[in-house]
Amino acid sequence: MSENTQIPEQLKWHQRALLAGLAFFMRLWGRTLRYHWDADVQNVMDADTPPAVVIFWHNRICAGTIFYLRYFRQRRLATLISSSKDGAWLSGFVEKLGVRPVRGSRYNRGAQAVRDMITANSEGFDIGVSPDGSRGPLYDMKPGALKVALKTGAPIILLSLNHASAWRLKTWDRFYIPHPFSKIEVRLHVVALNEFSGLELEEAVATLKTRMDAITVDLS
Fold it and tell me: For the whole model, what pTM was predicted?
């Protein structure tokens, strides 16, 4: 997606200019981060992998977005963003980075957001979902991402960005802002949809959470 993609109309010109500046700064700062991963990560996310549903926790959105845009430029990413007023800023910001926003949340437009994510996936976009966003609880696996995968047949990729050094905000998710030049360990797990055969939705979601918890490491 082009950096010139339109952002929400409720943002004024000076707000759009501010977002453009922040996006430029984030790209520069992101290039200082040192990501470490094994060969399986690159193999899974190469150009031949079908459009996937990529799941990562809300407090790692910063490192996750930078990682994706830095190393997988051959792929396109859409991500779910809250339909709240604050979400307009984040929507405009990710568009400046080259990510397609899908507006919605469990509190508002949830069903429509799932349909929009299915549409984006069918158009060739990977779908980035933070299943515990946008208001928590922390590390709570909600079913939206799994619903999209089951509807589209898209592979599910669990992605964890584990920080060696970072600031943590006093928000509900203890949001991570990695220190410049810090190390981030990338862990990835692919889940085959046939693993959910015969399972109720709640059981399948619980399975996903168990797998995600197994690759998640928090700073002490």
Answer: 0.85
